[in-house]
Design a protein that fits this description.
Helix content: 40-55%
Strand order of the largest sheet: 3-2-4-1-5-6-7
Number of helices: 14
Structural class: alpha/beta
Bound molecules: guanosine-5'-triphosphate, magnesium ion
Shape: globular
Radius of gyration: 23 Å
Length: 333
Amino acid sequence: MTSPLAERVFAGDARGIARAISLIEDESPAGADLVRDIYARTGRAYLVGVTGPPGAGKSTLVDRMTADLRKAGQTVGIVAVDPTSPFSGGAILGDRVRMTAHFGDEGVFIRSMATRGHLGGLARATSDVALVLDAAGKDIVMIETVGVGQDEVDIVRTADISVVVLVPGTGDEVQALKAGIMEIADIFVVNKADREGADRLAQSVAAMLALGTFKPDDWRPPILKTEATSGAGVPELMDAIQKFRVHSEGARATRQRARQEYRLRDLLSHRFLQLVEATLPAGELQRVIDGIAAREVDPYSAAADIMRRLGVRGAGPADGRDAIGGGPAGART
Ligand SMILES: Nc1nc2c(ncn2[C@@H]2O[C@H](COP(=O)(O)OP(=O)(O)OP(=O)(O)O)[C@@H](O)[C@H]2O)c(=O)[nH]1
Ligand SMILES: [Mg+2]
């Protein structure tokens, strides 16, 4: 039986979608229930990840792309993830202001998310929010993430295509190329092409790409120059996205499966840690860490001991020694 909230999501009701996203953001059990209710109806939307350093013009670009998609009759869901400013909410307001062009358009749903906990939680929440927008019938779901680190790479993994936005003259580009963004980029965008250094940046990305090995049928990430404020280069970007979509159609199922495996593994380790925290007495985990820091116990023995205390079989050598000193709870049965 589907919940009334799930029904509202299916109907594309904006308030229902907003409510569903809030449940997911709160990491409440109700959020997990909702995902369960909608999951069978997902998998239809095309997920476009847009990532890059702060202020690169991602939102402006997403806004332009949205306008194009709307003209073509496509509905759009947008999630802007902002891990850099958990408290100020400044960028969130900024996104709202920048995207007001779509305000009142039923075919567009925009939501900004800030981090509450750590980024791992945010990556999980982002995938779930994408599921909600997918179930709500959005044709295209765009996920905007700030940054260039490993955590963003995890968020980007949520998407069917990753667009990496770079800007000339920030120095961030070098970091982006180092941080593994290179491997996940399906399309490179050099935005603010009106600025000096755009050509040089495009060339250095091309030089990086030239170091990679591509088989004849492999997708070779194009490097496009855009000027998001004027919209120059945006049609070419839309074109490239479409080309990639066609090119990767056959591999999409494999990619989705890899994503699902990643999700399941991530969720299992997250749940396991939650279980550890819920099972051990309050403060125990910190005491174990203190013990490791003081060299009283090594990390392997501590982990094995915790597993035994959780009743996990084959957790490690049960030689009667208790690394934590927690008593008989860890005894092998
Ligand atoms: N000169 C120039 N300015 C641009 C261009 N694209 C965006 N901008 C400006 O750059 C600033 C940042 O743009 P945003 O779209 O907010 O960038 P963002 O990457 O979404 O920023 P965060 O989400 O805060 O990381 C704004 O003032 C834009 O008007 C461009 O192509 N050329
Ligand atoms: Mg933005």
